[in-house]
Specification:
Layout (H helix, E strand, L loop, with lengths): L4 H17 L3 E2 L4 E8 L10 E9 L15 E6 H8 L11 E9 L4 E7 L5 H14 L4 E7 L7 E9 L7 H7 L4 E8 L3 E8 L1
Antiparallel strand pairs: 1-2, 2-5, 3-4, 3-10, 5-10, 6-8, 6-9, 7-8
C-alpha cells in the first residue's frame, strides 16, 4: 500500500503534537509540568476541586508513569492550594477536566560535604572561608572541625557542610576559589529526591 504525501504530513503533524504534549516544560527552577490530557479550554478557578496524587522517590527521577506506580499519598484540595505550591506565579493555565503531571527535583546541587583544610593554611584565610560559607549557606548547616596542637588551640582542620539547592554554593567553584587552603572536598551524603504530583481537575 502506498503512503501518500498527505498521509505522511498528517503522521508527522500527529507525532510532533504528541511529542510536544508529552514533553516536560519548566515552570521555574524547581518545578516542571507535563500534560497527560486536556479535555476542556475552561481555565480553573481558585475554588475548583482537584485530586492530587503524590509520588515520592529518594533519587533524581526524570519521568513517571502514574498508572504503574503507587502514590505515597492522595489528597482532594482546592485548586488554589496546589497552585500555590507548584505554580506560585500563575504561569500555567490549568484547565478543567484535565490531567497534569508536575515534577519537583530537589538536591541536584545539594548534599553533605567534608572540606579538608591544608595543615599549613593561613589562619586568616581559614576565617575568611568560614565567613564566606556562613554568608552563602543560609538553608543548610556548617559544622567546624577543630583540634588542639602545641602551636595552636582550636585549629580548624575542616568543615562539614550541608547544602541545599537554595544555597548559593557551587562545590567546584568553592574548591577553585580557596584552592590555596582547601586540600580536598568529598561528598559524605546526598539529599537528592524527586516528587511527582498527578493533578486531576
Amino acid at each position: 500500500m502506498k503512503t501518500t504525501p498527505l498521509v505522511l504530513l498528517f503522521l508527522l503533524f500527529f507525532q510532533q503534537s504528541f511529542s510536544q504534549k508529552n514533553a516536560w516544560s519548566a515552570i521555574d527552577k524547581s518545578y516542571s509540568i507535563k500534560t497527560i490530557s486536556e479535555k476542556s479550554t475552561e481555565i480553573l478557578k481558585d475554588t475548583d476541586p482537584v485530586n492530587v496524587k503524590i509520588f515520592s522517590f529518594r533519587d533524581i527521577v526524570d519521568n513517571l508513569d502514574p498508572e504503574k506506580e503507587k502514590p505515597a499519598s492522595e489528597k482532594n484540595l482546592s485548586f488554589k492550594d496546589i497552585r500555590d505550591k507548584v505554580d506560585k506565579k500563575g504561569k500555567v493555565n490549568f484547565k478543567r477536566n484535565s490531567v497534569y503531571l508536575v515534577r519537583l527535583k530537589e538536591g541536584l546541587n545539594g548534599g553533605r560535604f567534608r572540606i579538608t583544610i591544608n595543615k599549613n593554611a593561613d589562619k586568616k584565610a581559614v576565617e575568611n572561608l568560614n565567613q564566606y560559607l556562613s554568608e552563602k549557606i543560609t538553608h543548610g548547616s556548617i559544622l567546624k572541625e577543630t583540634i588542639d596542637t602545641p602551636e595552636s588551640k582550636n585549629m580548624t582542620t575542616g568543615f562539614i557542610i550541608t547544602v541545599s539547592d537554595k544555597d548559593g554554593v557551587d562545590i567546584n567553584s568553592l574548591k577553585q576559589k580557596y584552592s590555596n587552603i582547601i586540600s580536598d572536598i568529598t561528598k559524605v551524603a546526598t539529599n537528592k529526591s524527586t516528587l511527582f504530583f498527578k493533578i486531576t481537575t
